[in-house]
Amino acid sequence: MANTPNIPKQFYKAAGLVFFVFLIIASCSEVIELDIEASANEVVIYGRISNSYDANEIFISRTQGAESAALPISGASVQVIDNNGLVREFLENEPGVYVMRPSDAPGEFGSSYRLEAVIDGKVYSTEFQELMPVISQDELRYEIGVERDITSTGANIENDVVKIFADSKLPDDLPEDFFIRWEIEEAYSTFTAFLPVFWFPRAPPRTQCYVVNKLGADQIFLLDGRVIRRNDLNNRPIITRVIDNSFQNKHYFNLIQSSISQENHDYWDDVRSLTISNGTIFDPVLGKLQGNISSNDPGEEVFGFFEVIGIDTTRLLMTNNDIPVFFVDPCLFLGDRVPPLLTVPPNCVQCLIDEKIVEESCIFCSAVPNSTSRPNYY
Fold this sequence. Notes:
42% strand
């Protein structure tokens, strides 16, 4: 089932930054040096069209210099055109974020697509790229373990962890050239607090919130099919996640596979270690990487990448029954946890937050980091 991955949306600044790229096949590190001195007034575009109804969006911003956040660009005319001349319109649903018109169909395998965006009279575009089908069949499994560490003060600590592994099966008749990107994300639900009605009669009702997190920039795995002739990639360690309260309800791990072009592979081979999990395109621009987008002004540099991808998602569901840990709900107020709530004036829910008696995320779903609408697989 296709699904929308959290788009890596942040670039980094610092001249002469050195970062490590982790190769999935060789299991070793390659050092790449980039000249990423940031400057102002440069257009950054990142987006995609895919075979999914969800994963079709374009982010457009303009840099404001090394020390300032990029500003979203509103009012652009954005469309994706296929090789048959069919136009898919992308409409702005929040500043600088353009999503495909709901009535338009997603991309189709075998068809080719290009981006065209008009910003302040200038045209930004890409060449046609073919939407390649997904070829790997993935499976996820987990192990419960313990990780030991030593703090800065020399104390020994132990953490219960979940270790996620992937098996990937490729077709027996491998294409000569193919490129795959895998990303890992988690999704789980939390509940806001139920406050005593006799003291807080107008408190917000208890609500279930949904959280989707991208798990680490170093967890973007790339496969260059030109250097592999085997058709199975088994027992690959994907992520180690410390067990916490997020596991008290349903907890999904989603392995998102993208079938990409060589140009796309090479771009993310450079950028993946520059990506901060959960950042946004509007955060400070910390780096400059030219992708496949050009301007009709030949003297203008454009940064970012427009990708045409086939995607598929493999999910692993874990529940409380799978975790040998007792969880204390930080937003459940019963017994001796009730009296502190009564130290504020009646019905003053905001007082609970101001006095740090209750976390804001226990009252409002919007305060839960990376909260989102209910995923369709819940």
